[in-house]
Every structure is written in C-alpha cells, then in structure tokens.
Amino acid sequence: LVSWLGTKKVLKKSILCPRCNKEIQLKPEGSLIMHCTNMHYKQIRGRKWQRKACNYKLSALTGTWFIKAYLDLVKICRIISNFLMINSPRQKLFQTEMQISTSITADWTNFCRELLNQWLTDSSKPLGGPGIIVEIDEAKFGRRKYYKGRLITGHWLFGSVERDSDRLLVVSIPDRTAAILVPIIRRYIASGSIIHSDCWCAYDALSNENYLHRTVNHSRNFV
Question: ISXO2-like transposase domain location, by residue (predicted)?
C-alpha cells in the first residue's frame, strides 16, 4: 500500500536531506520512515575529523493529510474508497466493518466532503462568457430564535446560474458586502458576461468591472 501511494504521489517517495543535501528514498518494504544513512566527516572540537552517519529521519506522511491522523493508513484508505464507491447512508457500515466510533466516522466523511468541494471549486470552469447571461443572488440560511421574528443566526450563501446551460455555483460567504461578493464574482464568472441581479447595493460595484450588469427591482417586478 505504501509503495502504491508513493507511485500515485500521495506519499513522498524521496526528499532532499536538509543536513547533508543528499536524496533520501522511501524504502520499498513498506516503512513510513525515510532514514538518511549517508556518511560524512565531522570535525570534533576543532582537531580530529570523525566519519559519522547523518541519521536524519522524516516520516513519509509529513505534508500529507495523513500526518495527524490517529487511524492507521489501511483504515483511512478503506474509508476514502468506501466513501467514493458507496452511496449514503454509509456511516453505520463504516462503524461495523472497520470498528471505528461515530465521531471518527463523522470527521472523516466531513473531511472527504470538504476535499471534494475544494477540488470542484478549484477545477471548475468559470460561468458565463461574452453574451452569456448569468443570474446571481445571495441568501441567508438559518433559523429564527424561538421560531419567531427575523433570522438571528445563519450562514450566507452566494449562488449563480448560467441561464442557457443551467450550470451553477454555490459558495459560502461570511457576509454580503461588496468586498466579499465582487472578488467571488470576478473569480467564478467570466469577463464579458451579462449579469442579472437584484438591486442590492453591493452589486453596484459591478459597473466598474468587465460585465454588462442588469438589475431587477423585486418591489416592482418578480422574475
């Protein structure tokens, strides 16, 4: 398993030793510790030169998402593979098949969801383009205190949809100010797009960007 993860670049197969500047290889027998055994000469107390081994050690898990995991590598890989192949609900299966607790199951499934969400966000193609209409809006999702009155707590979400293809994007945001919304629009919506939005004041800054901005006043029209 360790050798296979190394070939897939999930684990490091080699590093450069920071002490002697020599390359350290991951051993093929499955050890997770890369050990530098290069010999060098070191001067002892300014008089005698002595031949010594470097003895620098580093875990192959360093810099990966396995580094602070309490589970062994086999169980982690089984959780990830089952998460990708088995449809929900799957938490009970993880607990019984791999003998792990409810909290560990929830942590790792949430971690896998966050990683997939980040991958989709980073690799997604921008919406819109010259002459293409993209509709945008923001909303707060939460609950009312004692189920009465206005929303007190909740999370803001920004959404956009490409009208012709129904491609969409939903991003969690801390608030709906122009300082937050405009960089997100600039990142995920291609220049030259026709943007349709409501009359929220934060969208006024789009007039300074490379977009054709059109607004709908919901107090007069419902679209």
Answer: 126-223
What number does CATH give the domain 133-141+153-216?
A: 3.30.420.10
Phi and psi angles of residue 38, each rounded to the nearest 5 degrees, phi first = -65, 140
* Rounded Cα gap, residues 152 and 5, in angstroms: 47
Predicted confidence (pLDDT) per residue in 95-143, tens digit: 888 788 888 888 888 888 888 877 777 777 889 899 999 999 998 887 6
For residue 223, count CB atoms less than 10 angstroms from its CB and return exposed for 0-12, middle for 13-18, buried for 19 or more.
exposed
Answer whether 0.70 is exceeded by the pTM: no
Give the CA radius of gyration of the chain. 27
Q: What are the sequence ranges of the domains in the chain?
A: 1-59, 73-122, 133-141+153-216
